[in-house]
């Protein structure tokens, strides 16, 4: 198709909580996603000194981002990637895996921001 760009995604950065919480579905979904991704890629451990260096490294090495249920650290990573996309630091896809409605309240909050025109139209999600 003319004018349509296709992005090949080879490396996906997964944000998730260190603590699995009480919902076994989170663990099962994370395990399944890991199985799917491992068939396509081989991850490696990279040590960094600071959280900023961690986020920058993940952004530079990844083609896309997905957040699984987690805590404040997961939300920080997710929102950092969203902020950097708004600042045109990257243009990579960002998504959430909404297991058992975990992100429903967050998505409702984002909808409220759109409805109140608190977000620029140029950042409208697709």
Brief synopsis:
By secondary structure, this protein is mainly alpha-helical. The protein has four helices and three strands; from the N terminus they run E-H-H-E-H-E-H. It is globular.
Main sheet: which strands, in order across? 1-2-3
- How many helices? The count is 4
Provide the succession of SSEs.
EHHEHEH
| General form | globular
Helix content: 40-55%
**How much of the polypeptide forms β-strand, as a percent range?**
5-15%
Strand segment tally = 3
Low-confidence stretches: none
Distance between the termini: 19 Å
Q: Can you give the mean pLDDT?
A: 83
What this model shows, in words?
This protein has helices at residues 24-40, 51-61, 72-86, 104-115; strands at 12-15, 64-67, 94-96. The longest helix has 17 residues, at 24-40. A three-stranded parallel beta sheet has the order 1-2-3, with helices on one face. The model has no long low-confidence stretch (mean pLDDT 83). Helix content is 44%, strand content 9%. It has four helices and three strands. It has 126 residues and is mainly alpha-helical. The protein starts with 11 loop residues before the first strand and ends in an 11-residue tail after the last helix.
